[in-house]
Write a structure and sequence with these properties.
Length: about 280
């Protein structure tokens, strides 16, 4: 299992330092977050931050947990993704979700989509446009909210056929999980709980996704061979307990753990100290 960390506290310079520290200490992924207001954390533009992190690192996977495409124009979102894909030499991943309805970028801006249905439709259109734009060839698109005719982002993607997309899947919602199954990974959450998924719930979700992807293939949908199962949360401070947690999730089918330390008492300094100890505490 690969292990990443979210820059959940501090400003942009602290985040860049954290990206370098994570790479130097054996972490597999560095993630920022995408929002206009989340507690007291500094709300930096994720693509600008990741573009800078791409220049300060060489091997670590980069992304955000999670991008909210519904707050962006699809072509702008695709251009941002493709630019960071190039700057990082193909190290970007794109975890995506509906975005929180109470985020200031939705709730305090007149005219933005707030309902889950609207945000879901905008998310799906953005992902479709990103997929088409990744070829670098001209394309047209007709959706419920956006239409394009003979446009192209000649940059294309470094990664083929596109930058990997990990969609939030709220288990056991079949509609939410079905969206993730069509892409390259699932950021697994529980539908009606803020708790971390248990190993048995991961097993259930992985089994369901496997069956759904097989159904899609039988229906003629082309899917990639690799599919990531991403779980996030906070590992125990006890090394043995942390190892046991990671091992149980890996055995259940998870392929990524992302350390998400949203505790308001967490500071840039304490987070950096945790990262210097390596992916597993000890």
């Amino acid at each position: 299992m690969r292990i990443g960390v979210i820059a959940s506290s501090g400003g942009v310079h602290e985040a860049l330092d954290l990206a370098r520290t994570a790479e130097q200490n054996g972490w597999d992924g560095f993630f920022t977050w995408d929002g206009m207001s989340v507690g007291s954390a500094a709300a930096a533009d994720p693509f600008s931050l990741l573009a800078a992190a791409a220049q300060h690192t060489r091997s670590i996977t980069l992304g955000a947990m999670v991008f909210a495409p519904a707050r962006r124009r699809p072509l702008v979102f695709a251009q941002q993704v493709l630019t960071v894909d190039h700057l990082s030499a193909g190290r970007l991943v794109v975890p995506v979700g509906l975005g929180a309805a109470d985020d200031a970028g939705f709730s305090r801006v007149t005219g933005e989509a707030v309902s889950a249905r609207e945000r879901a439709a905008l998310l799906d259109e953005s992902l479709h446009v990103l997929d088409l734009a990744s070829s670098g060839e001209p394309f047209s698109f007709v959706g419920e909210h956006h239409r394009f005719s003979d446009v192209a982002l000649a940059l294309g993607s470094v990664q083929r056929p596109r930058v990997p997309v990990w969609a939030v899947g709220a288990w056991p919602s079949e509609r939410s999980m079905a969206r993730a199954a069509r892409w390259d990974g699932v950021v697994l959450q529980l539908l009606r709980s803020g708790e971390e998924p248990t190993a048995s719930q991961v097993t259930e979700a992985v089994t369901w996704i496997g069956a759904e992807r097989e159904r899609l293939r039988e229906g003629g949908v082309r899917l990639g061979d690799r599919f990531e199962v991403v779980v996030s949360g906070r590992l125990p401070d006890d090394p043995a307990a942390a190892s046991e947690r990671v091992e149980s999730l890996s055995a259940a089918g998870a392929t990524w753990w992302v350390e998400a330390r949203w505790d308001p008492t967490e500071t840039a300094e304490t987070l950096s100290e945790r990262v210097r100890r390596g992916p597993l505490p000890g």
